[in-house]
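Table S2 (text version). Query chain:
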Amino acid sequence: MSKDPDIKPIRHTRHLVVDENTAGQRLDNFLIRELKGVPRTRLYRALRKGEVRVNKGRVRADYRLVVDDLVRLPPIYQPATSASPSIPVKQAEQLSKQIVYEGDDLLVIDKPSGLAVHGGSGLSFGLIECLRKMRPESGYLELVHRLDRDTSGLILIAKRSATLKELHRQLREKHIDKRYLALVAGKWPRATRIVDAPLEKNFLQSGERMVRVSAEGKRAITEFSIVERLEGATLLEVRPITGRTHQIRVHAQHVGFPLLGDDKYSDNLTEKFAREIGLKRLFLHAAALRFSLPNAPEMHLQAPLDDYLKKILENIRK
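Corresponding structure-token output:
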């Protein structure tokens, strides 16, 4: 039994009823919020073992909650929540400058690379915690989708539960058009426009999440198109048709062109080229989003590459 004063045991089973503000959320995201600080590996293990149940039955992590669902949370060790994370002033100042769009229903941020979308797995805070701390009066702020920590670019945050449900519907039905900019080493083959390869998630002993192409995985489709041929590299526009974890990164690796700056799915030659051009982070940027909100015209939002990635391209062009 842990004697750490910052850890408190939840000694009894809890049953929570899903309300309108929570409905539409994925079960794993719900658990991350309700069991703050519990490692994700522990949460997913609880799901696999059936410790977490919805309406007395086993469910998958991607199950979307509906109003009046009864969620069983098992006894589990959970960090104390008395001390809320302290958000660095510079982080808050930067985020306030990264707002691309804001309305009554929606907030759109150009997320900087290096900032996780939420805390956990050793991180005291992420994008959503920063925003909630910066805007305590907002009441409701929820991530519509995710970006990897090292990926920069556009991310949607719902300010109302109805908006979250509607955008989740559009994501499921593939009505939201996402476009990324990615840089790979070498000459991307012009004939390779669609990669259709199933992806399977697994966890290493260290708890690190990795994804691989596997016949046992879920279908994943990514569209690639060439933006610019560079000396020793290719700038691509990427459109993920499906939304699997690490999809763009693993599909690019699968066809022999890992993304530059990718520390998970790279190879020696790609890493060598990244060092030569001075790249020290993942070159993947969520550059454009196209979607609609009810009773409103279609929205088309864009975020240009940040100065660091622009400089990398300039270095190659020179």
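Notes on Table S2: The domain at 178-317 is CATH 3.30.2350.10 (Pseudouridine synthase). Residues 161-172 form the longest helix (12 residues).
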